[in-house]
Amino acid sequence: MTATATGASAAGAALLPGSASASGGLSARVRRALDQALASGAPGAVCGVIQDGQTYVAGAGRLRATRGRAEVPDGSTVFQLGSIGKTLTATALARAVHAGSTHLDAPLTLPARFPVPRKGGRRITLADLATHSSGLPALPPNLFTGADPNDPYAHYTLDDLAEGLAKTELVTVPGKTYRYSNLGFGLLGQALAFDGVDAMLRRRVTDPLRLRDTRTTLTADMAARKAVGHLEGKPVPDWHDRVLSGAGTSMYSTADDMLRYLAAQLRPERSPFRAAIELTQRPRFTADDRLRLGLGWHLSPLPNGRTMTWHNGGTGGFSSCAAFSRDSGTAVVMMVNTASEETADQARPVDALTMKLLRELDAA
Fold first, then answer.
1. Is the pLDDT confidence value at 200 over 80?
2. Distance CA 144, CA 169 (A)
3. What is the DSSP string of 217-238?
4. Which of 289, 280, 235, 233 lies closest to 261 in space, CA to CA?
């Protein structure tokens, strides 16, 4: 099928194994969201939906003047995932809690050369890190020293982290205020598996959930299916991160994998670790009347009073968003190969489109 809202796009739809054909209403809504993603500047976009126990995924791409055709991503196209990866780290934490190897109120503990900052006599706990209430700044103070602007985490080492933590001051007392922090989730990953975060996430989360394309290092097969990231219409490198990857800074995935992951969120009893998934979704910290935090996941009210559980993500050339409603059994993921920024009065297009589509489907 073709999408023609912009007059310069092509789209394709595919069904995942075991899924049924999407209704005309669903396919039209997805197609409209894809058209709007392209109109907002994305070279390519893919959108996946779970509704009524069925799974649907479609992609769209802009026509290229030099080739006269569109490169259309699909459910197997690899994108950088960005901060949705934080929910994987939070799931690893929840699994460790249920295994009895740690607890949510345990203080953040790192090797001695990594000083953990304090404020007001209160130590940072693992729950503080997982709910963005640690008081830590968004990034280490020395992250950009010697950094490549197009790959800002690649140069950062454990020695740099030790040096940066010695200079880090908490902005607020831990446990008091929501303040989004990549540094916090990077430290959570290191607290769970020091200098072995990526292998730990594969072992504890992605392998058991059969997320074969959700990882920080591209396989040859993944590289052949990877979309090229863009910033302001120009190709840019992927991000690489060896230290703070628990924040999702260098995670890759596909829409197919994200739909498997969201299916586990909707029906944890069908997953290998129900209790851990349930724990990540349980409200633990209230930021304001529109936002609560589970472990990693953000929870916001829908117009009908139900709860939308969500997370977005982005790297230098990619943007993504995933959202679901347990009450209606509905989930949406959208991935685009362009970076975009939220402004004071406007959400990123990928976030607005994902959440709009979830609201529509949840109300249907």
1. yes
2. 17
3. S--HHHHHTBPPPEETTEE-PP
4. 280
Half-sphere exposure of 167 (CA within 13 A, CB side): 11
Name residues whose C-beta falls within 8 Å of residue 222's C-beta, 6 or more positions apart in sequence: 78, 213, 215, 252
pLDDT at 64 > cutoff 70 = no
Cβ contacts of 107 within 8 Å, gap of 6 or more:
116, 123, 124, 125, 126
Rounded CA separation 222/210 (Å): 15
pLDDT in tens, 281-320: 999 999 999 999 999 999 999 999 999 999 999 999 999 9
Q: Which residue has the higher pLDDT, 1 or 166?
A: 166
Structure tokens at 117: 């900052």
Query: Which amino acid is residue 130, in one-letter code?
Result: A
- Cα–Cα nearest to 56, from 31, 87, 88: 31
pTM of the model: 0.92
